[in-house]
Design brief:
Elements lengths: L1 H11 L2 E2 L1 H5 L2 E2 L14 E3 L9 E5 L1 H7 L3 H4 L2 H6 L12 E3 L2 E4 L2 E5 L5 E9 L2 E8 L16 H16 L6 E14 L8 E12 L5 H10 L2 H15 L10 H25 L1 E2 L21 E2 L24 H20 L2 H27 L8 H14 L4 H8 L17 H4 L8 H25 L3 H11 L7 H12 L4 H9 L35
Parallel strand pairs: 2-3
Antiparallel strand pairs: 1-8, 3-5, 4-10, 6-7, 8-9, 9-11, 10-11, 12-13
This protein binds adenosine monophosphate and magnesium ion (MG).
The site of adenosine monophosphate has 18 residues, from loops.
């Protein structure tokens, strides 16, 4: 049975080894932690899990790869996607990259707990399969290359939640328990515990990061830098190639990375996502969200908030800091690829576009979040006043915007008072002081005036406004406490909640009456609970 299913898996997943064939690799077979020179990757062997058990998979990603649902439910699937069993054509490898961590050059990092299995050719599109948590590689430094269940559940669910929110991201195919225990000191406070180990299979068109280029630039490995850049452009940015790849191609390429990154950051800000560790090794060259570690979702609107305890002092990667950090990271990439262009001006011009693109997207998003057909300059004040107001009393960002759609423009005829704003009341975590109530009523008055003007000028009805708002203001996000509850059940062997969240988060903008309770604000007990409001990098 196992053998037959393995054969079928191999037939369904035509593996090509494009990346490793196109680029120089380290084939020494030495799997000790070390500096790897002259290579984009090292051969690596996934660790054999002792009792692999698949506990969740995503039918959409399976379909993307041409994998039947039936095969996803086989023992063979658990074996392959835990790394225990390789399919015949797989030549696993770990990628070499470096990065700036918390503002400082950190040298070589690389895939310390990720092993790529190769690309699947699905109708001409190449999808790289990557196992996260499948054991040590030459890039593991002092760590074990493993991942615990809690961080794997978080990565698995959030990748898919992001995708369904319409935000570029790496995908997740599967969540497999390894049957092995992993020791972790969750808060680095001398209390290590044994936790269940798990492996997530991530899927993306490329796992190349900003840090993949930085490492070669820092080491002066220019030939390798050029090879990787050319390969990335040919594979992932083919529309930029007109004949030979030359200096202008690199400039256009960088320009597009800048644009994509600006859009990505605007997307995160729109939905209240905080990545938590925006180091340059965690920035995808495709402008996708990558590496879900101590991320979190804003509950009370607070630009200063970060879920990452490791960053609690500096708050370098807090919600409000993210757009600027995106630019900071792009400057590091510009420096890294400078040797390909040898002129600062075109790179500086491209970088200057970041703030423009971000501001345009942000304005358009804010207009849509408020239901206006277009953004007008004077909306800036309305938006700023709202954001100030949201911070005065702890206000749930997701619920506030979602429910603002339920405030009717018909209120305009009356003297707006707090009771009229009942749909917004559930967004508050605290009693709202009279002063804030008054200011909110005054703001809604201005908001509805602007709404009426927008509707009239467009010949729209309120139905159009509501539809526009609901298309950009999600009702369901992966609230930190929801993920934590699913994790706690999973740790008891019950994956019902993980699968329920996966299902629910497939349609985050839809009303799903059966899941109404998942749209509720964070319960009070979760305010200071580990995993719900505080996370560490340890995984
Ligand atoms: P991160 O900031 O979590 O993306 O990880 C930074 C670096 O640490 C990367 O090179 C990871 O591969 C490596 N790393 C993180 N956790 C582990 C682990 N458990 N074992 C080996 N390497 C790890
Ligand atoms: Mg990383």
């Amino acid at each position: 049975m196992l053998d037959r299913d393995l054969q079928q898996l191999a037939q369904s997943l035509p593996i090509v080894n494009r990346f490793i064939q196109a680029l120089p690799g380290d084939h020494s077979g030495d799997d000790s932690s070390r500096q790897v020179f002259g290579a984009c990757y090292s051969d690596a062997t996934p660790r054999a899990a002792s009792a692999p058990l698949s506990v969740a998979y995503t039918p959409e990603v399976a379909q993307l790869l041409g994998l039947s649902q039936q095969l996803c439910q086989t023992e063979a699937f658990s074996h392959v996607f835990s790394g225990k069993q390789l399919l015949p054509d797989m030549q696993p490898y770990a990628m070499c990259y470096g990065g700036h961590q918390f503002g400082h050059w950190a040298g070589q990092l690389g895939d310390g707990r990720a092993i790529n299995l190769g690309e699947v050719n699905a109708g001409g599109e190449l999808w790289t399969l990557q196992l996260k948590g499948a054991g040590r590689t030459p890039y593991s430094r002092h760590a074990d290359g493993l991942a615990v269940l809690r961080s794997s559940v978080r990565e698995f669910l959030c990748s898919e939640a992001m995708h369904h929110l319409g935000i570029p991201t790496t995908r997740a195919l599967s969540l497999v328990l390894t049957g092995d225990k992993v020791t972790r000191d969750m808060f680095y406070d001398g209390h290590p515990q044994q936790e269940p180990g798990a492996v997530v299979c991530r899927v993306a068109r490329s796992f190349v990061r900003f840090g993949s280029f930085e490492i070669f630039a820092q080491r002066g490995e220019q030939a390798l830098l050029k090879k990787l850049a050319d390969d990335t452009i040919e594979q992932n940015y083919p529309h930029l190639v007109e004949g030979q790849i030359d200096r202008d191609t690199y400039v256009r390429w960088f320009g597009e990375i800048v644009e994509r990154s600006a859009h990505l950051l605007a997307d995160w800000m729109r939905v209240g996502f905080v990545h938590g560790v925006m180091n340059t090794d965690n920035m995808s060259i495709l402008g996708e969200t990558i590496d879900y570690g101590p991320y979190g979702w804003l509950e009370g609107y607070d630009p200063n908030w970060t879920p990452n305890t490791t960053d609690a002092q500096g708050r370098r990667y807090s919600f409000g800091a993210q757009p600027n950090i995106g630019l900071w990271n792009l400057v590091r990439l510009a420096n890294a690829i400078y040797p390909l262009i040898e002129e600062a001006q075109p790179l500086e011009e491209a970088l200057a576009r970041y703030s423009e693109v971000f501001a345009q997207r942000r304005s358009a998003d804010m207009a849509a979040k408020l239901g206006f057909a277009h953004y007008k300059d004077k909306d800036g004040e309305l938006v700023e006043d709202l954001l100030r107001l949201l911070q005065q009393t702890e206000t749930d960002m997701t619920i506030f915007y979602r429910n603002l759609a339920n405030i009717s423009p018909q209120l305009l005829g009356s003297d707006i008072c707090w009771e009229h704003l009942a749909p917004l009341h559930e967004a508050y975590y605290q009693a709202v002081p009279d002063e804030v109530r008054e200011q909110t009523c005054a703001w809604v008055q201005r908001y509805l005036q602007r709404t009426e003007q927008s509707l009239q000028s467009q010949g729209e009805s309120d139905v159009d406004r509501v539809a526009r708002m609901k298309a950009v203001n999600p009702k369901y996000v992966l609230r930190n406490y929801l993920a934590q509850q699913a994790i706690e059940q999973a740790e008891q062997g019950d994956f019902g909640e993980v699968n329920r969240l996966l299902q629910l988060l497939r349609a985050p903008y839809d009303e799903q009456p059966e899941y109404e309770r998942y749209a509720a604000k964070r319960p009070e007990w979760a305010r200071v609970k580990a995993g719900c409001s505080m996370l560490s990098c340890s995984s």
